Amino acid sequence: MRLARFTLHRPTSLSHALALKDEYGDHATFHAGGTELLVALKAHVLRYEHIIDIKQIEELRGIRIRESNILSIGALTTHHAIANDPLVREYLPGYAELSEQVANIRVRIAGTLGGVLCFGEPHADAPTMLCALDAWVVLAGQNGEREVSSRDFHLGEFATAREDEELLVAIEVAPQSPGTRSAYRCFGHTERPAVGVAAVWSIDNPQRLSLWAGALTAAPARLARTEEVAARLAPDLPIEAVWERLEVAVATDAASLDVHDDLHGGAEYKRHLVSVLAQRAIAACLP
Ligand SMILES: Cc1cc2nc3c(=O)[nH]c(=O)nc-3n(C[C@H](O)[C@H](O)[C@H](O)COP(=O)(O)OP(=O)(O)OC[C@H]3O[C@@H](n4cnc5c(N)ncnc54)[C@H](O)[C@@H]3O)c2cc1C
Which SS3 state, helix, strand or coil, does residue 162 take? Predict the structure, then answer.
């Protein structure tokens, strides 16, 4: 289908982009890599008279370590750039590995982290891992910046805590302690994941597991019962013993998730996948 006519704006600063959005309101939207937006525009699911292309905005670019050793990833960073970035590979190897597997090479090269988070399509990988890592997003509006935890950002299908006029500027992660490892495992029959599970395991004292399941529910969900059981495990248990103790808790958590049958699989099948993928993600975190 053909695109409906629109005016393209190409601001080079954050303030200009926000001013354009303020001027055109509901008739305007932001455009980053366009991998989701263009499909929706061509299908006439969405329609805007003004498209604000944000790709020239320097403030949304780059990956850096800022004060207090916080890793800051600019919203325009593509999945491909994240997968190959030396800082991400060193600080969050589990996240670099995830980014290498997103969709296909065309989507990875054009699609941005800001785009996948703001679009709010539940069948995505990064949101699950960012929740497990307790990352936060930096949002900018006409009245300044604010931070929102990734755990509060995803409100449901295509719904996030971002106000329509706000731009997502960066995604940030606090430094992980040396005893922390993270891993993500997913499975699906289509290009998008049917289920993904992210584990962040810290063997520091006290040991902690952060375990989140995504793609199968409207927003990533915490597997809280399993986290509680993991916190009480004796350190240095072999992986088989760890899984023996966590298996029932994961099944209990999976059973409580609000999962439905859809083209990605039946609800029971997806709950089973949560168990399988949780076991694999946890095993990948253990030494
Ligand atoms: C065929 C296909 C397969 C895919 N498979 C996977 C997969 O396996 N795993 C996965 O995780 N993802 C998958 N995706 C999703 C992919 O990650 C996203 O399409 C991509 O990251 C979106 O980024 P973008 O820059 O292209 O966003 P755009 O299409 O430019 O924008 C998407 C939406 O976000 C808004 N937006 C973008 N950037 C900002 C910003 N900085 N601030 C405010 N609003 C903003 C836009 O206004 C728009 O509403 C797939 C997508 C496709 C098309």
Answer: coil
